[in-house]
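Supplementary Note 3. Input sequence used for the single-chain structure prediction.
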Amino acid sequence: MKECPACGAAVGPEDLSCPTCGTRIEGATLKFAPVSVPEVQSGTPVASSQDGPVLVVRKGPEVGERFYLEAPEYSLGRDPHCDIFLNDVTVSRKHASVRVDGGMATVRDTGSLNGTYVNGVRVDSAPLDNGDTVQIGTFQMIFMSGASR
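The predicted structure, written as discrete structure tokens, is reproduced below.
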């Protein structure tokens, strides 16, 4: 049994709110096995080199979605208040962040359950190069570092 984050009362796995104080209980993050990173076939456009810096969803929910990285830092996660909202139970509420500084981008895991992967390798923090694959939960995204869109 887990405890209510507000009052500490016992909360059952099926409870959506605390039976004692009524606090809403957030859903748990599910575990998953990361997928392998297949090679992108030549001639298969993922994003234009002039679309960046941008993350383009290649696999998972929201395929084709583009997240333009125009601010210095972005939070990524299942929490609707994140800058980049990744709505899937395999994504932690505050999963990762991306920092963009002078044309350089760095992804950092922020204590997620399933981890953050760059080119199939689990990382705590890693610089992103043009064409790198970033996996957060079931979302597999391609980083494009190109010039302005």
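The CA atoms of residues 53 and 145 lie 4 Å apart. The radius of gyration is 17 Å.
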